[in-house]
Design brief:
Elements lengths: L8 E6 L3 H6 L7 E5 L9 H14 L5 E5 L8 H9 L5 E4 L5 H13 L7 E6 L2 H5 L1 H5 L5 E6 L1 H8 L11 H13 L3 E4 L8 H14 L3 E4 L5 H7 L4 H19 L5 E3 L2 E3 L1 H21 L1
Parallel strand pairs: 1-2, 1-8, 2-3, 3-4, 4-5, 5-6, 6-7, 7-8
Antiparallel strand pairs: 9-10
């Protein structure tokens, strides 16, 4: 089975904020997204790029490190991709991806700058066109590893209103998950803007998990613990997964293709998901003890 990497909590950290960059590795997020785009004013773009790359090269702890670059067509995009290629980051996050062309252009730029094969691409789906073409985006490159829902920009472009139930983006979120899963990618949910709304954040995490997301993007460290909790398989979920694996193996050994576990019919597709749950729990335990 492909290695499972926890991506329950993905914290945006401004590339222009030296203190935040220094503190980020100690916060416990699964993913640190060093941001050169929305969080950085135009006049600070060059300095932020330099500081971000220096921080990544020095090392930012056990978290997966992702560098969010400025979008195609901006004055900083080309230099951002060149810097990302040699930064040592695990992935490059491309904003406002509207179609597969943006992925392929970034891939060509990274390869021209001799980026290692291990450097992944992530794509933000945050425009109506991006949502409608999410399946094409997801299938655009073998470097692509994750789709990230950008709900704030999407709500603006839809001329919708933010609601507690997120009714305005549920179709879009499901399309992002569908596209990601169809191409074997991870999927991360969008940010929660109200930092004082702990109950609303917890509910958004639960909803995102129910929709199929692997984790949630975050704008403040205080939300890391709740996101980790929401997207961590519970003890009973892991125990049930183990029972499925063991019962199905015993059934196969006896020449049976299906078996009933806890009153439910279990087939091969359920076993694959059970293995994923157990692998995710093991990866989390290995990292956090």
């Amino acid at each position: 089975m492909t290695a499972v990497r926890p991506r329950r909590s993905a914290l945006y950290v401004p590339g222009a904020n030296a203190r935040a960059l220094e503190k980020a590795p100690s916060l416990g997020a699964d993913v640190i997204i060093v941001d050169l785009e929305d969080a950085v004013a135009p006049a600070a773009k060059e300095e932020a790029r330099r500081a971000a790359v220096e921080s990544i090269r020095r090392g930012m702890g056990p978290a997966e490190i992702v560098l969010r670059v400025n979008g195609a067509g901006t004055p900083w995009a080309e230099a951002d991709l060149r810097a990302a290629a040699g930064s040592g980051a695990d992935a490059v996050l491309l904003p406002k991806v509207d179609g597969p062309e943006g992925i392929r252009e970034a891939e060509r730029a990274l390869e021209a700058s001799r980026a290692p094969d291990s450097l992944a691409l992530w794509a933000m789906i945050e425009t109506p066109r991006g949502v409608l073409r999410a399946a094409d985006v997801a299938d655009a490159s073998p470097r692509l590893a994750c789709l990230v829902a950008g709900t704030s920009d999407l709500v603006k472009d839809l001329r919708a209103r933010h609601t507690a139930a997120r009714t305005e983006v549920l179709v879009s979120l499901s399309l992002v998950v569908l596209a990601a899963r169809a191409s074997g990618l991870s999927a991360l949910d969008g940010v929660h803007l109200d930092l004082a709304d702990d109950a609303g954040f917890a509910e958004a995490c639960r909803q995102g998990r129910d929709l199929g997301f692997d984790g949630k993007t975050l704008i403040h460290p205080r939300t890391i613990a709740a996101a980790r909790l929401a997207f961590t398989p519970g003890d009973e979920e892991v125990a049930a997964a183990r029972r499925v694996i063991e019962a199905h193996a015993a059934a196969e050994a006896a020449g049976r293709g299906v078996v009933v576990v806890d009153g439910r019919l279990v087939e091969a597709l359920h076993v694959a998901e059970a293995h994923r749950v157990v692998a995710l729990a093991a990866a989390i335990a290995a990292r956090h003890g």
